[in-house]
Specification:
Layout lengths: L6 H6 L11 H7 L9 E7 L6 E3 L7 E3 L1 H13 L4 E6 L19 H12 L4 E4 L14 E3 L2 E3 H18 L3 E2 L8 H11 L6 E8 L6 H6 L20 H14 L3 E5 L5 H11 L3 E5 L1 H12 L5 H14 L4 E4 L2 H10 L1
Parallel strand pairs: 1-3, 1-4, 1-12, 4-5, 5-8, 8-9, 9-10, 10-11, 11-12
Antiparallel strand pairs: 2-3, 6-7
Helix pairs in contact: 3-4, 5-6, 8-9, 10-11
EC number: 4.2.1.24
GO molecular function, one term: zinc ion binding
Pfam families: ALAD
């Protein structure tokens, strides 16, 4: 028999990587990571009133919704198999003040929505945030005293808010304000109130990022913000500091960890999963969403392909799920097979 060994076989030691890529069936057979509807958390924006669906210009395809319309949308999400939603309110300006006191109103927009979702769509998880920025007149995530976001007073307030949100039916508290000690304080507060079953998804590594712009438009804080958030968000240059932050949250009792933003910090996703073994989630934030949408609308990229590719990348980086404004679109695409 004529020896058909090629120079390439000699160079590679008869190992050819392309053998497993040669056909669709082999590529499917050896695919390491898969994106499913079970990986999706849908963030939604709420506004007061009834019958309101208000498009957000900076986020094409995303709307602010009144509670009644949000209930209809969440029913659709549940029917598509999406496991959970995350809610963010855009309350009236006259209800915003220096301390974000409206977050302590048991019947505020956030808690009203939670109760409605648990009544009408009981089979979907509800994740709520206790950061004060949707409720403050200055756009910061905590209580502002002079030029300082005060840590301990803010923690006291978010603990009270967390208990109220749990009372309203929230399944998971996701504190994003990045105050020191908040995870342990919230855990103790929830347990003391009898909410041992309510989980905590810590925004363990929330970076001081430029990717939040469209979100701030969505909750009407962009024009309110005084100064920046560098004294409590993490410097984008600091990976080790981010891991130290996450370590403290794990020690304080976090059930799940989140990285925000997502794709620019995909290395942090991997490091956190490797370090702790807890469920890790990435938040594909508004700026990431808007970039993909804008480039797709201009024909510069294949929007659908990039949408799916970025979400799959989070899975490859060790994420157990992704908060994404694409959730409904992706769920429909996955349902088609």
């Amino acid at each position: 028999m004529h020896d058909k060994t090629h120079l390439v076989d000699q160079i590679t030691g008869h190992r050819r990587m392309r053998r497993n890529r040669k056909a669709d069936w082999t590529r499917r057979l050896v695919q390491e990571n898969h994106l499913t509807v079970n990986d999706l958390i849908w963030p939604i924006f709420l506004v007061p009133g009834k019958g309101i669906i208000d498009p957000i210009p900076a986020m094409p395809g995303v709307n602010r919704m009144s509670v009644d319309k949000a209930v209809e949308a969440v029913k659709q999400a549940a029917d598509l198999g999406i496991p959970a939603i995350a809610t963010f309110p855009n309350i009236e300006m006259e209800k915003r003040d220096q301390t974000g006191s409206a977050i302590l109103d048991a019947n505020n927009l956030l808690n009203e929505a939670t109760a409605a979702f648990k009544k009408h769509v009981p089979n979907i998880g509800v994740i709520t945030d206790v950061a004060l920025d949707p409720f403050t007149s200055h756009g910061h995530d905590g209580i502002l005293r002079g030029d300082i976001i005060v840590n301990d007073e803010t923690v006291d307030q978010v603990v009270r808010a967390a208990v109220m949100q749990a009372d309203a039916g929230s399944d998971i508290i996701a504190p994003s304000e990045m105050m020191d000690g908040r995870i342990g304080a919230i855990r103790r507060g929830l347990d003391a109130a009898g909410h041992q079953d309510v989980g905590i998804m810590s925004y363990a590594t929330k970076f001081s990022s430029g990717y939040y712009g469209p979100y701030r438009e969505a909750i009407s804080t962009s024009g309110l913000l005084k100064g920046d958030k560098n004294s409590y968000y993490i410097n984008p240059a600091n990976g080790t500091e981010a891991l130290r932050d996450a370590t403290l949250d794990v020690e304080e009792g976090a059930d799940m960890l989140m990285v925000k933003p997502g794709l620019p910090y995909i290395d942090i996703c991997w490091r956190m999963k490797e370090a702790f073994g807890l469920p890790v989630f990435a938040y594909q934030v508004s700026g990431e969403y808007s970039q993909i949408k804008a480039a797709g609308m201009n024909g510069w990229i294949d929007e659908q392909r990039v949408m799916m590719e970025t979400l799959l990348c989070f899975k490859r980086a060790g994420c157990d799920g992704i908060l994404t404004y694409f959730a409904i679109e992706v769920a429909k695409k996955l349902a088609k097979g």
